[in-house]
């Protein structure tokens, strides 16, 4: 099965470099998705442009792919399920949840000269980054790609309720499955509250397991592809 890998904010396709060979060794085809505006030097990119790129990857896949979104890109993965509910095998959400209709995609940090730069590690102190050593932090920060304003402030549009029939796996790194279930039950994640099949799986890591637990993450993704 093709496993489409969509990195979160500030990440380009190289974020999956340690995960890709692990997935291949387990018999599946990993496809890191290079999002416009995240690695190609373009700053005038919109959220719609990124959605279109993800949908093009879905359409180009061999058979029904598994769509994996990390962090903010959990919403991108869910948008793919909304636009192609019959063409995806399932969605995996790593360290995040999909926004509901009408929300801003990722208007989280200040915009500077038309982009949202990586804010440094201070906002992510604690469970998010405790498992990252100084060398890894420096490497990730050096490779961080500013997010175009049109992506960060883009508005999420969902329209096809068939998305609720797409199987969902939530990989819980810096939070536990029990916490995730509490948030869903409390109405904090309305999209998943309506999803018919949601599995919560634990992963002992911080917010960026592709850097710190690539083998374990790859195994969870392959398990979700079965």
Explained architecture:
About 35% of the residues lie in helices and about 15% in strands. It is an alpha/beta fold and about 230 residues long. It has a single domain, classed as Rossmann fold (3-Layer(aba) Sandwich). A six-stranded parallel sheet has the order 2-1-3-4-7-8, with helices on both faces. A two-stranded antiparallel sheet has the order 5-6. Helix 2 packs across helix 3. It is globular, with a radius of gyration of 16 Å. GO terms for molecular function: catalytic activity. InterPro entries: AB_hydrolase_1, AB_hydrolase_fold. It comes from Promicromonospora sukumoe. This is Pimeloyl-ACP methyl ester carboxylesterase.
CATH architecture: 3-Layer(aba) Sandwich
Can you count the helices? 9
The Rg value, from CA coordinates, equals 16 Å
CATH topology category name: Rossmann fold
Number of strands: 8
Kindly report the average pLDDT value. Answer: 96
Strand content: 5-15%
Q: How would you classify the helix and strand content by structural class?
A: alpha/beta
CATH class: Alpha Beta
Can you list the strand order of the major beta sheet?
2-1-3-4-7-8
Parts with pLDDT < 50 across at least 5 consecutive residues: none
Largest sheet: 6 strands, parallel
Terminal Cα span:
9 Å
Domain module count: 1
Order of helices and strands: EHEHEHEEHEHEHHEHH
Question: What is the helix fraction of residues, given as a range?
Answer: 25-40%
CATH superfamily: Alpha/Beta hydrolase fold, catalytic domain
Shape: globular
Protein name: Pimeloyl-ACP methyl ester carboxylesterase
GO molecular function: catalytic activity
